[in-house]
Amino acid sequence: MSDAEYAALDKISQGGATCFTRRDGTTRALDSNGKIIRAKSFSMLDRSRLIRVDTSTPAMFGRHIKITARGSLALDFREPGRAQSASPGSAPTPVKGGNRRR
Question: Which DSSP string corresponds to 5-64?
Fold first, then answer.
């Protein structure tokens, strides 16, 4: 998950979000402060099932977006601005030569 996707998920977890579908078929997601959530981040979070869109409301009136349990776990195990760590089974690559003098 990229930093932008993590930030979008964090915004949704703090106050929810709403998505609207326009007449031309485009979808726009807004956080609780009215700021736009990028379409690429929104679609990745939706595909990964980290968020849930309430489909009981018509799309033109705005559908509420909530974080799922899976999304909550993703927030708990990742800190912002920190790159993903290597898998636990991989060893660090050795440095050839180092800085030693002979």
Answer: HHHHHHHHHHH-EEEEE-TTS-EEEEETTSPEEPHHHHHHHHHTTSEEE-TTS-GGG-EE
